Amino acid sequence: MTPLISIQKLSKSFPGVRALSDVQFELMAGEVHALMGENGAGKSTLMKILAGVYQKDSGEILYNGQPVEFASPRASQAMGVGIIHQELQLMNHLTVAQNIFIGREPRGRFGLLLDEDKLNAQAAEILARMHLKLDPRAVVGHLTVAKQQMVEIAKALSFDSRVLIMDEPTAALNDAEIAELFRIIRELKSRGVGVVYISHKMDELKRISDRVTVLRDGEYVATVMTETTSVEAIIRMMVGRTLTEAAPSERSGPQGEVALEVKNLNSGPLVRDVSFSLRKGEILGFAGLMGAGRTEVARAVFGADRPTSGEIFVHGAKASIKTPEQAVALGIGYLSEDRKRFGLAVGMDVESNVVMSNLQKFLSFGFFLRKLAIRETASRFISLLNIRTPSPTQEVRLLSGGNQQKIVVAKWLARDCEILFFDEPTRGIDVGAKSEIYKLLRALANQGKAIVMISSELPEILRMSDRIVVMCEGRITGELSAKDATQESIMHLATLRETTLKAA
Amino acid sequence: MTTTRSDVATLTGEGRATTLRARLFGPTALQKLLAFASLILLLAFFSFASPVFMETENILGILQATAVNGVLAVACTFVIITGGIDLSVGTLMTFTAVICGVFLTYWHLPMWIGVVAAIATGALCGAISGTLAAKMKIPPFIATLGMMMLLKGLSLVVSADKPIYFNDTENFYMISQDSIIGRILPAIPVPNAVVIFFALAIAGSIVLNRTALGRYTFALGSNEEAVRLSGVNVDRWKIAIYGLGGAICGVAGLLIASRLNSAQPALGQGYELEAIAAVVIGGTSLSGGSGTILGTIIGAFIMSVLTNGLRILSVAQEWQIVVTGLIIILAVYADILRRRKS
After folding, report:
1. pLDDT tens digits for A372-394?
2. B contact residues 190-219, partner A, Cβ 8 Å cutoff
């Protein structure tokens, strides 16, 4: 039997990063093939090449045994490859039918007016084939996320897709909805559609997939039968990288008193009953998969989002934090994972950003800026953190990612914060700048700052943390001391879902 | 220690050099230069085309006409740099003039109280717009559109739809029409309105570039969420900035009331668009984050020189409006081109 899709020796690089190298992958008709790997393993890149979003650098893609090029999303759609992105791409104000046939609306007699009846009839037909009870005239924005996902699937099927790629389809679904989704996937399977299923959730893989292919750091690891492979074996394949750069940095001696204590914090679906404590001079690692709720915990503690319940103690005193302003007044700083959106005013210069959270300190008569003092402070941090910028008045957007990150760090150091949340501090930063950030973090901890480091890179967590808290789906699933933690034990906790817990 | 000092000094010197270079040749500066060059070109063209144009009386007329619109444009500059917009500046100007009239003519209070009342009313109304935008999250366009109509109506209600004349306050006309400079140098009788306009522009420029309020004005336009997450009380600053804009509108209200020696309640609508046009021609980006007072002033002069010059050349008023529209479109397109390059 010819595979539906066969990929050989596929490589793809982005400036500075080798995203995929010599990767192979195979999809049979009527198969559900799971694609696994840590964050950044190359799953999304691979799928985006199939969907025509990216072009491959080298290698071969065979579709039904024929070599093909997926030159654009339109081209791969026309060839029968449909993709359902993690973030749904629907127009919320249009109806189900209008969404399914967007850009291909049936026209009336003179090709002028749209034929709404025909549109709805065709949509109803597709929905019926999926055995789905859904009104084609319903407005998509009013549907549940699960139903919206079904609309995406219907849209993909309306192209007569033979390959369906699903990227984390169950991320926002509850158990009943997941069951419904799996019913439809099996339905598609029986009709010979090949499904590529990307997920982090081990229990789902066991339920739905036939084979699993594991990628790690952009390289192919193995393809195995799901039925005969244990979850532990799959996790081992995912994380089994050699820790070359992971020599743990020297740790400080005994740690100080508790700087921050969080009790039973709740905020939205991704912060559920979270409790932890943080000592002075300590780096507490927050591990977990994407969407586990780590950023949300930091934002809730920092007052960026309002928690629904829970208590926060800062240096032993109960604190009421409703706005970032109050958090900062208590000496808490938050360095966002998305520097450009939440951390920096990139159109402004370096010195303006450095003093942004502490401008009151640089005013005369409480009103006029003391420009010289600002310049001196900025210059001090530029040399202290080794920020490479031609001058303190350089616009931040012209600097590299690593230097931008250091400016965010400088901003919070200028404010003299005692408790610092670093959210993915090395994302998008090259290797050299990474190790500088690591040194900086450790130096700060040694000075007695209390640090929370959120990271999706396990080697980074293992290298930097004194203690590790692991989250999954908004809950803390475990805490590990640095010397006991391994990639496997963290990964185990990071995939410990509530349903799995109940079943066990 | 010495090394650190000299390091700072070097960096400072280097910084200054870069700033100077950026000021002269940076993209913003380039547009300012472009605007300035256009202004010079317009002046040259009109003085060549008509001998009347360069006569002292006409020049004074242009200055006088620019004063009110220029002050409103300064108010708009602050709000637009935050990434917002203020459509209510025109009718707010009228409303403050009417309030001033109420204090001075209806209630016979001393002139300084009328002046304070006008500016305070402006600040209050601006702060209300700011509160609507910051606290209630109403988009500034809608919030100030509402304020625009609301204030227009209030002006008519308070004045019973009739002009209020400042007959009881003898010296009121002097605010705008007298010339302190003229008393010292009779050769150049520049009216006070122009002096007030320039003084306000200089003060505005200092506030924008040298105070915390000015710094946050740019910061809000650059990345409001990042400012909030820096622990800054974003709402309070936004209200303050709109409030400042309103207070400046109060000054404009005094200038126009003094010039007409009356508060004309039906006046005001349309001024906001001229002010916004001046700001945009002056190189301030409507998406926020960048802009200068100097640019705004040049923009305001371009608008009034154009109007004046076309009138002198006896171009029909209808066509004057057409030309003004074209100029605005050209200016905004220049801004887009600049943005695309950077």
Report:
1. 999 999 999 998 888 888 889 98
2. 210-216, 218-219
Interface of A with B in 344-363 (CB under 8 A): 344-348, 352, 356-357, 359-360, 363
**Partners of residue A260 on adjacent β-strands:** A278, A314
Q: How far apart are CA B218 and CA B201, in angstroms?
A: 17
| Smallest CA–CA distance from A356 into chain B, residue | B230
pLDDT of A287: 92
Mean pLDDT estimate for chain B: 88
List chain A residues with CB under 8 Å of B222: 345-348
Cα–Cα distance for residue pair B265/B257, rounded to 1 Å: 10
Sheet holding A450-454, edge to edge: A332-335, A419-423, A450-454, A283-288, A467-472, A475-481
Tokens 């695309």 belong to B340
3-state secondary structure A350-399: HHHHHCHHHHHHHEECCCEECHHHHHHHHHHHHHHCCCCCCCCCCEHHHC
Look up the pTM and report it.
Answer: 0.77
ipTM of the complex: 0.75
**Whole-angstrom distance, CA of residue A153 vs CA of residue A187:** 12
Q: Please tell me which residue, A200 or B192, carries the higher pLDDT value.
A: B192
Element (H, E) at A23: strand A17-27
What's the whole-number mean pLDDT along residues B227-232? Answer: 90
Phi, psi dihedral angles at A211 (to 5 degrees): -130, 160
How far apart CA B250 and CA B65 sit, in angstroms, is 17
Is residue A217 helix, strand or coil? coil
Hunting for tokens 């934002």 — which residue is that? A299
Question: Look-up: residue for tokens 């046009």?
Answer: B277
Which tokens go with B176? Answer: 């705008």
pLDDT band, residue B337 (cuts 50/70/90): confident
Which of A302, A324, A391 faces B11 most closely, judged by CB atoms?
Answer: A391
A252 — contact with chain B (CB < 8 Å)? Answer: no
Q: Residue A209's Cα: distance from chain center in Å?
A: 23
- State whether residue B187 is helix, strand or coil: coil
The tens digit of pLDDT for each residue in B140-176 reads 999 999 999 999 999 999 999 999 999 888 899 999 9
Spatial neighbors of B213 by CB under 8 A, at least 6 apart, are: A367, B207, B237, B240, B241, B244
Strands (DSSP E) contained in chain B are: 164-165, 262-263
For A401-426, give the DSSP string: HHHHHHHHHHHHHHTT-SEEEEESTT
Residue-wise pLDDT for B110-136, tens only, equals: 999 999 999 999 999 999 999 999 999
Min mean pLDDT across A255-269, A466-480, A485-499, B303-317 is at A485-499
pLDDT at residue B18 in the model: 46
The residue of B7, B10, B11 whose CB has the most chain A CBs within 10 angstroms, and thus the best one to mutate to test that interface, is B11
Q: What is the chain B residue with the closest CA to A359?
A: B212
Q: Is A327 on the interface with B (CB under 8 A)?
A: yes
Mutate one of B229, B287, B290 to test the A interface: name it (highest A CB count within 10 A): B229
Nearest CA in chain A to B231: A325
- Using an 8 Å Cβ cutoff, are A425 and A453 in contact? yes
Residue-by-residue DSSP string for A273-316 = SEEEEEETT-EEEEEE-TTSSHHHHHHHHHTSS--SEEEEEETT
DSSP per-residue letters across A248-274: PPPPPSS--SEEEEEEEEE-STT--SE
Question: What is the mean predicted confidence (pLDDT) over A146-160?
Answer: 87
Residue A481 bridge partners (DSSP): A467
Name the residue with tokens 């019913």. A183
What mean pLDDT is reported for chain A? 87
Q: How far is CA B247 from the centre of its chain?
A: 11
Say yes or no to pLDDT of A167 above 90: no
